[in-house]
Description:
InterPro entries: Rv0495c (IPR021458). The protein has 2 domains: 84 residues, no CATH class; 91 residues, no CATH class. The protein is globular and about 55 Å long. Strand 1 and strand 2 form a beta hairpin. Helix content is 43%, strand content 16%. The chain starts with a strand and ends with a helix. It is of the alpha+beta class and 191 residues long.
Amino acid sequence: MIEIGRAIVSRDVFEKHFLCDILKCKGACCIEGDSGAPLTDEEAILIEEDYHTFEDLLPEKHKREVEKQGYSVIDSDGDLVTPLVDDRQCVYSYYNKQGILKCAIEKAHFEGKTKFRKPLSCHLFPIRITEYKRFDAVNYQELDICKPGRKCGASEKLPLYKFLKEPLTAKYGAEWYKELEIAADYILSEK
C-alpha cells in the first residue's frame, strides 16, 4: 500500500494491467454486482436534475423503475446507489444495436446534453474507493467479468492507473496524479 495525500493506494493499482474490452464483456459491469453504482449526494442530485437529457435513451421498463424507485436508492448496506431493474441491471443503462450495455448518462454527456459524464464509481471501475474518516482506500476489484479487460491490458502493457488517469484525476486532482506516477515509477522499478 502506498499513501498519497489522503489515499492509501493498493500496489495492484500500479502492478495490474487493464484496458476495457467492451466488445467482449458487453458492458457486464452495468448488470453484475450486489447493488447499483455507488453515488455521492452531489451525483444523485445531478442525475435527478439531468434526467430529462437522457430519459429518451432508456427502455420503458427502466423509466417505470425510476418512477417507482426514484433517481437513487439506499441499498442493503446503507449506501446511496443507482436503482436496478430486476435487481440486476442499472436503470440508467440500455443495450445498443450491437447488444452492448451502455450508459445513457454518458451518451447524453458525449452528445453535449449534460456536463455530468456518469457516476465516478462507474468511471473508476474496476477501482473501488472506500472512504473512511481519515483516509480513502483505493483498491483494484478483480472480477471474472473483467477477464477480457485484463487480457487486453496485458497485451497493451497498460497499467491500471494509466487506464484510469482521467477519473483518478477527477477524484483527487492533477497534482495527486503526478505523485501517483512518481510512486508508480518507484514501485515498477523495483521489479
